[in-house]
Amino acid sequence: MSINNSILRSAGLTDKSIKFLIDENGEFNHTIHNDKHDDTLMLYGELSRFPERCPYCGFPMESNYYHNGTDEVRLSLPSTNGFKQELTLTKQRFQCLNCYGTCTSISPDFIENSKITKPLWKQIFDLAKQDISEKLIAHITRLSTSKVHVIISASASDYVTDTTQQLPNVVCIDEVKYRKGHFGFEILNGNTSEFIEIYPQRDNKSIRQYLSQFSLKNRQKVEIVVMDMNAGYQSPIRELFPNAIIVVDRFHIVQLAMKAVQSERIKIQRELSDKKHNRVYKLLKSNWKFFLKAERNIDTSNTKWFRGVHEYMYPQDALQLVFKDFPNFKTVYDVYQSVLDARFNHTFTPLEQLINNYKNNKTEMDTVIKTYKKYIKGIKAAFENNASNGRLEGTNRRIKQIGRTAYGYANSMNYFYRIRIQLHNKFILKQQFLTFKV
Q1: Radius of gyration from C-alpha coordinates of the chain
Q2: What CA–CA distance (Å, rounded) separates 271 from 275?
Q3: Transposase IS204/IS1001/IS1096/IS1165 DDE domain: from which residue to which, for each copy (predicted)?
Q4: Are the beta carbons of 207 and 236 closer than 8 angstroms?
Q5: What distance in Å separates the CA atoms of residue 14 and residue 51, rounded to the nearest whole number?
Q6: How many other C-beta atoms are found inside a 10 Å radius of the C-beta of residue 314?
Q7: Strand 170-179 with 18-20, pairing
Q8: DSSP code of 40?
Q9: 247 three-class SS
Q10: How far is it, in rounded angstroms, from Cα 248 to Cα 230?
Q11: Helical H runs in 272-375?
């Protein structure tokens, strides 16, 4: 019995009703050589467990049956040491004396009407938690790529969002691009970086439909919602999280001003006609990162080599060279530096004064300030709270990598399921993914 249990554990099985056959040499598995495929480790066993009730009439079968021959099946087990491992199992067939229906022995280790065993199924999904392709999973488990795809896709179709989970007091939300022209909507725990859910649409109607599945009592416990300045879904977020403060992510506050500097710089470059000899053009073209750098980090006491113009200059002289011909660029640059300083010092008052006193000058910064005014409450909350979408940006990086690993997904459902299984399951497979369906 102890040898049988050891074989069970090595094969990943748990049902002690399975009795393995050991030959006269004490061997319980044999290598089957195949010229076309990998060698297979073959185990042989018997299963003779009668069901408690007849699956047809429900009549107790404890003493109301008789043996009706056997069936032989070949089942796939988890791969081991690079070998494909299979079990040739002889299953006892029974006939009910009440309805005369026949059935075979069953085991909790096997999936109905499938040659894939549950231990192999779990091995596939344990590998799917890693950032590897289905083709590589198929190679490791010694299955065909199409079989692995069918197994994962079947479980993906049965996935149901766990709307009973407790929402944290800080929630991070953002959009994520998963196909050309298609954006999803994701939610993250702002305290622990735990992934909550991803949905395929980001329009107001869909967001209301998704989030309303969480109970009102659950949503009322959310105190802070961190998001970017996307006007598309602020309205449903305010309605669905009535007690939450909307916080604009500080990175997006700075990024908006930075894009205005970039846009104005490119505009100036296009206006200049003599691109070959103009020093301003060469300075803006080759040193664009310099104009995005915070002034507090610029060393003004020493000269710096500037590419394009091919000379050493003091940083302040390089700035004045551009500013004297393009004063509007100086205005945009100064506003950007003020935003950087407010972010660095974590003080909202100077930024608020800048927003209120700003005068339009027909540059991209006009649109930026207009956006700041529209989301002034969320920007102020960003300076009063430490919450940010930094955790979510890291998650977005992982989501994009999942798509790159598979060279894209034709079916968005499979893409989302792979995202969920990798981000939800840090240690063990959660119950919502355990659908033994092939």
Answers
A1: 32
A2: 10
A3: 171-419
A4: yes
A5: 18
A6: 15
A7: unpaired
A8: E
A9: strand
A10: 10
A11: 279-286, 315-323, 327-345, 349-357, 364-374
| 359: Cβ contacts below 8 Å, ≥ 6 apart | none
**Helices vs strands, H then E, count in the chain:** 16, 13
Distance CA 247, CA 260 (A): 22
Of 178, 174, 201, give the one whose Cα is nearest residue 186. 174
The contacts of residue 213 (CB under 8 Å, 6+ apart) are 161, 163
What does residue 118 show for φ and ψ, rounded to 5 degrees? -65, -40
Could you list the pLDDT tens digit for every one of the 438 residues in the chain?
578 888 888 888 988 889 999 888 888 888 888 766 678 889 999 998 878 888 888 888 777 787 888 889 999 999 988 889 999 999 988 888 888 888 888 888 998 888 999 999 999 988 998 999 999 999 999 999 999 999 888 888 888 888 998 999 999 999 888 888 888 889 999 998 889 999 998 888 999 999 999 999 999 999 999 998 876 788 899 999 999 999 999 999 999 999 999 999 999 999 988 888 899 999 999 999 999 999 999 998 999 999 888 899 999 999 999 999 899 999 999 999 999 999 999 999 999 999 999 999 889 999 999 999 999 999 999 999 888 888 888 898 999 999 999 988 888 888 998 999 888 876 666 666 666 665
Q: At what angle do helices 349-357 and 364-374 cross, to 10 degrees?
A: 120
d(CA 420, CA 400): 13
Torsion sign, CA atoms 229, 233, 236, 241: negative
- Residue 107 tokens read as 């085991």
pTM for this prediction: 0.81
Question: What angle, rounded to 10 degrees, do the helices at 327-345 and 349-357 form?
Answer: 150
8-state DSSP, 165: S
The dihedral over CA atoms of 318, 320, 323, 324, expressed in degrees to the nearest 10, equals -130
Grouping H, G, I as helix, E, B as strand and the rest as coil, residue 12 is coil
DSSP string computed for 376-395: HHHHHHHHH----SHHHHHH
- Rounded-to-integer distance, Cα 339 and Cα 243, Å: 29
Contact 40, 34 (CB under 8 A): yes
Per-residue CA distances from 293 to 289, 307, 328 (Å): 6, 16, 18
